[in-house]
Design brief:
Blueprint: E1 24-28, H1 32-43, E2 47-52, E3 64-67, H2 69-77, H3 81-87, E4 89-90, E5 93-98, E6 104-109, H4 112-118, E7 123-126, H5 127-140, E8 144-147, E9 151-155, E10 160-163, E11 168-170, E12 173-176, H6 185-189, E13 205-213, H7 220-227, E14 233-238, E15 242-248, E16 254-262, H8 263-266, H9 288-295, E17 298-303, E18 321-323, H10 338-353, H11 362-390, H12 397-414, H13 419-426, H14 428-435, H15 438-474
InterPro entries: FAD-bd (IPR002938), FAD-dep_Monooxygenase_BioMet (IPR050493), FAD/NAD-bd_sf (IPR036188)
Protein name: FAD/NAD(P)-binding domain-containing protein
Keywords: FAD, Flavoprotein, Monooxygenase, Oxidoreductase
Length: about 475
């Protein structure tokens, strides 16, 4: 499944068509959202320039990503099967265990026949490898990238951006891709009620990301369970207002860790320092082996939730500005779904703009982009936050009910219940996210709604032309 018929990246004609009107898009950022957006817009036939303040070509993050099928499927469509074959590994297991005892609460298995129905696998990839793949894809397809360019101002009227050196870059549409540091989002927020939040601030979890050398894990049984004999396994350890997720590095030399901390429980004890204060974090009832992971943490980064208003509009009325990814919607810090949602945004935006043939369509296509993506992305964010909360419940009836539900997965499998039936029943929303095809969704919108105004424009032009001919033949004036 991982090696499709396509044997090299698609550098042109991804959509088997190109836009009749060629636009110039300015993408402000070279993260996952920015690179994938730039590539898809370029495939739609547009000129694309990425403006990135960092001087380095690629952002270096020593973390691993778990890619769901709705993320690997677009990457395969872009012809990245060989690269995924080289850098990514199929994940067929997900384990829930108690963070205090390491007792397994449930082992989820994703069998091959189930993944075949989704036309893609759940895969684990190092962040740096994914960024390299997307960067090369964008560059090779003709995207221009300006590194080390500090943006001083974004002019929505231009539309244009002014750089630190005083130079100005003009475009037709400016795309904001970074989250809380977005320069485009504030221009769309200015008329909003700042008290309207996408979620209560203390509903979110801070995240600490770090890696641990497997040689520092002295318990052989625990180390082997994390590595799972070279078959990647996503581990979730449940705790009291905290939870820990682990993924193994491809070479087995490191384990990547997400430590989620309930904001209202832990954050009042922690300073606002940009340095992660792991020494200040005391987790209740944590197993010694998990505590040792924290004690041996390296490459530590730390991110808290930043409260922002919920955007009513992801674009301005003239169609000069649009935001995608975490610039458009708010996800919990360290979200596993953020990359998949960003790539889905890029696929939808590129598909819609592969149909454009006159400028008057820009606002309508941007509105369609938001219509297709906003509810889906926000619902995934809420689902994921609920998952983190469920993994971090304090002792009590809710936790007992959760554990009983997780144990049902083991009993169901032992009794022969179809794994797909169980997953669809218990993870219905999550499973529907897996099945989503952004290209298909955008094309369906175009067929149903996009062509109607254009046909009406054509009819209006035809009627107007006929009226002129009738007036000429009958020698009528406008007053007649």
């Amino acid at each position: 499944m991982i090696a499709p018929n396509i044997t090299s990246p698609i550098l042109r004609d991804l959509f088997h068509r190109t836009a009749k009107l060629r636009l110039h898009f300015l993408v402000l950022g070279a993260n996952i959202a920015g690179l994938s957006c730039a590539y898809h817009l370029r495939q739609a036939g547009h000129e694309v320039t990425i403006i990135e303040p960092r001087a380095l070509a690629l952002e270096n993050k020593p973390i691993a990503l778990c890619m769901p099928p709705n993320m690997t499927r677009p990457l395969l469509r872009c012809g990245l099967g060989p690269q995924l074959q080289k850098y990514a590994r199929k994940c067929t297991f997900m384990s829930y265990a108690s963070g205090s005892s390491l007792e397994v609460l449930a082992d989820m298995h994703f069998p091959d026949d189930l993944m075949e129905d989704l036309d893609a696998d759940i895969m684990i990839i190092n962040y740096n490898h994914l960024m390299e793949m997307l960067y090369n894809l964008a560059i090779d397809s003709g995207v221009k990238v300006e590194f080390g360019k500090i943006i001083m101002d974004v002019d929505a009227e231009g539309p244009s951006v002014t750089l630190f050196d005083g130079s100005v870059i003009h475009g037709d549409v400016i795309v904001g891709v970074y989250g809380e540091s977005s320069l485009v989002r504030p221009l769309l927020e200015k008329d909003l009620d700042t008290e309207e939040e996408e979620g209560e601030e203390n509903d979110y979890f801070a995240v600490v990301l770090f890696s641990v050398k497997t040689s520092d894990i002295d318990d052989d049984e625990f180390r082997n369970s994390l590595l799972n004999d070279g078959n990647p396994k996503w581990h979730v350890f449940t705790g009291n207002q905290w939870s820990i997720n682990t993924l193994p590095k491809d070479d087995g030399l490191e384990v990547f860790v997400h430590l989620f901390l309930d904001e209202k429980t832990f954050m009042p004890r922690i300073s606002e320092s940009t340095q992660c204060p792991l020494k200040d974090i005391v987790l209740d009832d944590i197993h010694p082996n998990l505590q040792k992971l924290i004690n041996h943490a390296e490459n530590v980064s730390y991110k808290r939730h930043v409260s922002r208003p919920r955007l009513a509009d992801w674009h301005d009325d003239p169609g000069h500005l649009v935001v995608i990814g975490e610039a458009a919607y708010i996800l919990n810090p360290g979200s596993d779904h953020a990359p998949a949602l960003a790539i889905g945004d890029a696929a939808v935006l590129g598909t819609l703009f592969s149909h454009i043939h006159h400028r008057e369509q820009i606002p309508r296509l941007l509105a369609a982009f938001q219509e297709l993506r906003q509810d889906r992305c926000e619902n995934v964010g809420k689902w994921e936050l609920g998952f983190i909360k469920s993994s971090s419940l304090p002792p009590g009836p809710e936790r007992d009910a959760r554990d009983a539900e997780l144990n049902h997965a083991i009993r169901a499998t032992a009794q022969g219940e179809e794994q797909e039936t169980y997953l669809e029943k218990e993870w219905g929303e999550f499973w529907r996210v897996f099945q989503y095809d952004p290209y298909e969704a955008a094309d369906e919108w175009w067929v149903e709604w996009g062509v109607i105004p254009d046909r009406m424009d054509g009819w209006n032009d035809t009627i107007a032309h006929l009226c002129v001919e009738v007036k000429d033949e009958c020698n009528l004036t406008d007053s007649d």
